[in-house]
Every structure is written in structure tokens, then in C-alpha cells.
């Protein structure tokens, strides 16, 4: 069996008992539905005989049976509606969790090429359609099959000729339904594309609403939105038109079949080869025969939507994280913090142009080194290789003499702290955001970390102190405050190796000074690599490394490099010019 089909079915596994119960109820419910016309026939036949007092008795008995059946059918319907949907929802939730867990594992180079909005819709929309299929698919097939075959067999035994006459219509109806199915599907697909466009635009607009307002471009944005909104409206109108055509023509078919039964039935009654009770039975069963064909479009659309959703789900799930633990990955313990680059070469995904070439670098435990060089030369890239955000293409990187590829990702990253220019804070309180550095930390530890990061004073001045909500991405804080929270987070994590990537670049002079103090406190007794474009901030580094197109071109203290009078001296002098 195809692997995907196996995988598709595997999600039923935890709920097999529920599934069988729901299917059994669907079966019993449909079988009961088939009985009503038969009971009606029985009553009518009794009335048509002339023994009316007996007929009355029979009517009461049949009425009793019908009431029992109604209750039974109701129970079955409840199980199908509630437990069936519940099963679908639980399966959907399992898949959603699996996909989310998978997202957590995928590597930086995957996210470099993806649109977040689309990844989100895979977790929500696509899976919803799939859960509908998981539940309604088998149940609908079963229901329609029972009703169609059951009513055909019953009618055939009552009057074969009339049954065959009705069946002449069915192939036409089926062809017609399938033709419209195609049209409806195209319309549905277009609707989905259009609504996805609207989603993307709204997301983009709301994320950038501050830019929109600062440029005063609200009207421009509304016009852009109107365009997409109208396109969606047009596409929906077209969809409804096809739908209306479909349903009205389907009704015409049903009316034609009804007329056929009435005309041919009456003729047969006149010729005494059919009685009134049989004709009524036929009229009642027509709906059962036609329902499956009427629902053909619905069922196929549901199937296609579900399968497309499943394919999109699997496409994502089948993407292997490009960076993961090797089979014999070890845990890093008691890290000293020696970092060594050995002939490292690197280029980004599918890009032949190498960013780093033949880089060798020895950083000893406790060193405080600075990395400088022109913008875009690869400083950030070099640092992101240490925690294995990307893997080197050539050479190797060692921590305490162990190749980073042989260390478990979790323990490797646990031991490296990064403070960047762009601070990402999660929506939530100050306390929650600092705790991110060590989920099991006590409140005392968190306050201690905040004090170390020079953040405590401003935090207690906030309206709710540590419990203050900082807004999405920390919009309610200043740049310097956000940076100090991110430093507190790293204090709490307490890693032996640190990377500061332009951590103070976006700050004004005053904030910069406070943040610099926090960073220096953090760097004490740890191996630290600092990237900074303000050369004044790295002047007192023990060792300065200059990265240029030719790799590491200079290395030494501030004074040594100035006296060399090469790239560093140029960069430094430029700053003075500025
Ligand atoms: P620096 O930090 O020295 O300013 P970077 O390390 O950020 O430079 O970038 C080095 C080069 O790699 C640049 O040419 C940049 O365009 C490219 N680059 C950076 N990040 C990515 C990425 N995620 N995917 C592809 N190319 C990238
Ligand atoms: Mg950079």
C-alpha cells in the first residue's frame, strides 16, 4: 500500500472503537430511514382493504413502531453528529500537534524561504477540511450506499418496470452532476485563492500599520484592499451562480422523475398491475434514490479538499530538518568554552557564492574577542555557525575540542547565549519573557537576572512591575528596555559562550551606555564574541578580528591593528570622520 494512504489511515488508529461505533450508527440510522416508506405502504394497503376496524388497529401498532424507530434514529444521528465530529476534531488536533512539533524542528534555511502566513494556513484551514473528510467521508459513503441500494432493491421487488423507468434518468443526472462538480470545484478553488490573497494582504497591512499611518497611506491601502475584496466578491458570485444552476436543474430532474412515477403509476393502476399503496411507496423512495446523486458534488468536493489538505500536510511533514542530532550525538557537560574554527567554508542554500572561505580561528575559554568588518561580509553568518543554525560546508567547528556536529543540538544551544540587534520578545508579561531563558527559574532568580542586566529599576517603575504586559513583540517598551530584557534572559540562561551581534547598534547614546554596562557584566568569565560597528564599543577587546573578502585579514589588539594601518585603521578612522 502506498505510504501516504497508510499514513492517512493511521490517524484513525487511536479512535478505531469510536469510528466503528459511528459507522454502525450511520448504518442503523440509514436502515431505519428505509423502513418508513415500507411502513407507510403497509398502512395504506390495510386501509385499501375494506376491513377498516382492523386497519385502525394496525395504524396504532405501526404508529408505535414508527415512534420507536424515530427515537432510535435520533440516538444514532446524535452519535454520528456529535461523536463523529468529535472524532474528526481529535484527529485534526493530533495532526495539528504533529505539524507544530515538526515546525519547531525545521531549520533556519527552511524558514529563510517560507511565508509565515502560508505555514499558518496549513496548521488551521487545511487541517479543518481534512477533519471533515475523516469524519464525513466514510459515513456519507455508507449512508448513501445503503439508501441507494436499499431503495433500489425494495422498489425492484414492488415493480421492476417502473423502477427501471426511473433508473433511465439516473445516468443523465450523474453526468450532469459531475459536469457541475467540475465547475463548482473551480469556483471553490478560486474562492480559496482569493481569500488567501485577502489574508496575506490584511496580515501584511496590520503588521505594518505603523508604517502605513506614518506615511499617511491609509487611503492607498484601502484601495489596494478594495481591489482584492472585489475580486473575492466576483469569484463568490460566480460560484453561487454555478451552484444555483446546479440545484435548480437537479430539482427539474426530480420533478421529471416524480411525474414519470405519477403518470406510469396511474396507468398501471388503471391496468390493475399496481395499487395506490405501491405508487405512494415509489413517490416516497424517489428522494432516497436521488439523494446520493444530488450529493455527488458535495462528496467529491469534500474528498478533493481533504486529499489536497492531506497532501499539503504531508509535503510539509516530509521535509527533513536539514540540521538535526547525529545518531551518536553527545551531551555537552561542564563546558569550558573553547571555540575553534578549522578551515571553515560556508555558503547559503542553493547559492554558489560562498560567504565564508577557509576561516580558522582559535578562541580560548574566557576570551573576549571582537569581530569587525564591512557590512554584509559574513560576521553574523560566522557566529550563526557556532550554535549550528546552519551547518558548515567545509572544515569544522569545535567546542572544547568536540565537533559541534557531534553534540546534541539541545545541549549545544543550551550553552550558547545570543544577544542581537533585533530583540524578539513574546507577547506576555516581563516576568514571562525573562523566564524564557530558564523555564524552571524562580521569581528570585528572575529578579536577580534583571538586576544584573540593569533592568530591575525600569521594570519596577512599570505600571504592574514584573507583571506588566509588554504587548505584541514588546511594543510597549523602548529599544534599550527591550535589549535589557533580552540580556536578563541570557543572564538567566547562564551559558558559558556568548555572542553579541550588534547588540547596541540600534540604540541611542544613553541607552547604549547602560546596555553596554549590562553586556560587560554578562561577559564576565565567559567566552564572548562581540560584533559591533561602533568601533568605540570594542576598543577594549582583548583581541580584534577583522573579516574581509579575503577571510580573516588582521588580528590583534586595538593598538596593534591601528599601527598596522590596514582595514581596521580605515574603518576606525571612518568612524571619526562620522
Ligand atoms: P554581516 O553580519 O557581516 O553584515 P551577514 O553574515 O549577515 O553579514 O551576511 C553575509 C552575506 O550573506 C550577505 O551577502 C548576505 O546577503 C548573505 N546572507 C545573510 N543571511 C542570509 C540568508 N539567510 N540567506 C541567504 N543569504 C544570506
Ligand atoms: Mg550582521
Ligand inventory reads: adenosine-5'-diphosphate, magnesium ion
Mean pLDDT: 89
3D shape? elongated
Instruction: Calculate the terminal CA-CA distance, rounded to whole Å.
Output: 69 Å
The second-level CATH architecture of the largest domain is Up-down Bundle
Strand order across the biggest sheet? 6-7-8-3-9-10
Number of β-strand runs: 10
Helix/strand-derived category reads: alpha/beta
Using the CA coordinates, give the radius of gyration: 36 Å
Which segments are poorly predicted (pLDDT under 50) over 5 or more consecutive residues? Answer: none
Strand content: 5-15%
Number of helices: 20
Domain count: the total is 3
Question: What labels would you give this structure?
Answer:
578 residues, alpha/beta, ABC transporter transmembrane region fold, Rossmann fold, 3 domains, 6-stranded mixed β-sheet, 4-stranded antiparallel β-sheet, 20 helices, 10% strand, binds adenosine-5'-diphosphate, binds magnesium ion, nucleotide-binding, transmembrane helix, membrane, ABC-type oligopeptide transporter activity
Molecular structure report:
The protein is α/β, with parallel strands linked by helices. It folds into three domains: 2-317, ABC transporter transmembrane region fold (Up-down Bundle), CATH 1.20.1560; 335-415 and 498-512 and 527-578, Rossmann fold (3-Layer(aba) Sandwich); 421-494, P-loop containing nucleotide triphosphate hydrolases (Rossmann fold, 3-Layer(aba) Sandwich). It is 64% helix and 10% strand. It has helices at 3-10, 16-48, 52-105, 108-111, 116-123, 125-158, 160-207, 209-214, 218-270, 276-294, 296-317, 379-384, 409-414, 430-435, 443-452, 456-460, 479-493, 509-523, 558-564, 567-577; strands spanning 339-346, 356-363, 368-372, 394-399, 402-403, 416-420, 497-501, 527-531, 543-548, 551-556. The strands form two sheets. A six-stranded mixed sheet has the order 6-7-8-3-9-10. A hairpin with a 2-residue loop joins β4 and β5 (402-403). The chain starts with a helix and ends with a helix. The mean pLDDT is 89. The structure holds adenosine-5'-diphosphate (ADP) and magnesium ion. Magnesium ion binds next to α12.
Amino acid at each position: 500500500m502506498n505510504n501516504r494512504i497508510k499514513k492517512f489511515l493511521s490517524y484513525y488508529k487511536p479512535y478505531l472503537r469510536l469510528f466503528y461505533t459511528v459507522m454502525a450508527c450511520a448504518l442503523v440510522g440509514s436502515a431505519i430511514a428505509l423502513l418508513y416508506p415500507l411502513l407507510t405502504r403497509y398502512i395504506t394497503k390495510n386501509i385499501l382493504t375494506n376491513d377498516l376496524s382492523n386497519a385502525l388497529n394496525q395504524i396504532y401498532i405501526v404508529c408505535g413502531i414508527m415512534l420507536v424507530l424515530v427515537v432510535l434514529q435520533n440516538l444514532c444521528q446524535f452519535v454520528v453528529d456529535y461523536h463523529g465530529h468529535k472524532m474528526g476534531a481529535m484527529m485534526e488536533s493530533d495532526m495539528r500537534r504533529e505539524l507544530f512539533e515538526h515546525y519547531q524542528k525545521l531549520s533556519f534555511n527552511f524558514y529563510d524561504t517560507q511565508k509565515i502566513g502560508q505555514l499558518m494556513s496549513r496548521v488551521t484551514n487545511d487541517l479543518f477540511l481534512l477533519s471533515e473528510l475523516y469524519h464525513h467521508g466514510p459515513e456519507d459513503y455508507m449512508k448513501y450506499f445503503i439508501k441507494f441500494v436499499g431503495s433500489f432493491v425494495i422498489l425492484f421487488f414492488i415493480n421492476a418496470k417502473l423502477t427501471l423507468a426511473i433508473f433511465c434518468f439516473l445516468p443523465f443526472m450523474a453526468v450532469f452532476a459531475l459536469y457541475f462538480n467540475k465547475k463548482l470545484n473551480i469556483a471553490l478553488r478560486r474562492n480559496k485563492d482569493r481569500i488567501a490573497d485577502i489574508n496575506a494582504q490584511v496580515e501584511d497591512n496590520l503588521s505594518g500599520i505603523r508604517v502605513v499611518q506614518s506615511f499617511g497611506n491609509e487611503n492607498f491601502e484601502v484601495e489596494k484592499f478594495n481591489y482584492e475584496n472585489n475580486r473575492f466578491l466576483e469569484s463568490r458570485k460566480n460560484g453561487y451562480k454555478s451552484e444555483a444552476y446546479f440545484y435548480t436543474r437537479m430539482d427539474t430532474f426530480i420533478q421529471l422523475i416524480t411525474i414519470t412515477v405519477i403518470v406510469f403509476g396511474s396507468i398501471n393502476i388503471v391496468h390493475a398491475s399496481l395499487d395506490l399503496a405501491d405508487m405512494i411507496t415509489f413517490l416516497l423512495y424517489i428522494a432516497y434514490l436521488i439523494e446520493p446523486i444530488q450529493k455527488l458534488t458535495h462528496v467529491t468536493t469534500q474528498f478533493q479538499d481533504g486529499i489536497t489538505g492531506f497532501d499539503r500536510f504531508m509535503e510539509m511533514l516530509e521535509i527533513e530538518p536539514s540540521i538535526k542530532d547525529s545518531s551518536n550525538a553527545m551531551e555537552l557537560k561542564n563546558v569550558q568554552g573553547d571555540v575553534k574554527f578549522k578551515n571553515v567554508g560556508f555558503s547559503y542554500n542553493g547559492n554558489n557564492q560562498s560567504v565564508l572561505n577557509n576561516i580558522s580561528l582559535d578562541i580560548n575559554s574566557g576570551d573576549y574577542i571582537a569581530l569587525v568588518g564591512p557590512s554584509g561580509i559574513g560576521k553574523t553568518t560566522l557566529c550563526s555557525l557556532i550554535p549550528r543554525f546552519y551547518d558548515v560546508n567545509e572544515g569544522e567547528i569545535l567546542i572544547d575540542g568536540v565537533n559541534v556536529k557531534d553534540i546534541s543540538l539541545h545541549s549545544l544551544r543550551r550553552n550558547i547565549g545570543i544577544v542581537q540587534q533585533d530583540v524578539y520578545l513574546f507577547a506576555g508579561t516581563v516576568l514571562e519573557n525573562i523566564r524564557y531563558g530558564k523555564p524552571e527559574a524562580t521569581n528570585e532568580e528572575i529578579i536577580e537576572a534583571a538586576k544584573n542586566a540593569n533592568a530591575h529599576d525600569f521594570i519596577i517603575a512599570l505600571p504592574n512591575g514584573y507583571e506588566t504586559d509588554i504587548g505584541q513583540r514588546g511594543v510597549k517598551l523602548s529599544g534599550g528596555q527591550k535589549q535589557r530584557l533580552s540580556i536578563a534572559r541570557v543572564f538567566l540562561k547562564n551559558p558559558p559562550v556568548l555572542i553579541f551581534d550588534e547588540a547596541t547598534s540600534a540604540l541611542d547614546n544613553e541607552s547604549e551606555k547602560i546596555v553596554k554596562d549590562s553586556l560587560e557584566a554578562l561577559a564576565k568569565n565567559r567566552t564572548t564574541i562581540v560584533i559591533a560597528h561602533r568601533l568605540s564599543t570594542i576598543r577594549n577587546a582583548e583581541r580584534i578580528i577583522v573579516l574581509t573578502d579575503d577571510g580573516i585579514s588582521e588580528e590583534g589588539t586595538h593598538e596593534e591593528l591601528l599601527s598596522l594601518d590596514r582595514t581596521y585603521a580605515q574603518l576606525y578612522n571612518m568612524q571619526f570622520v562620522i
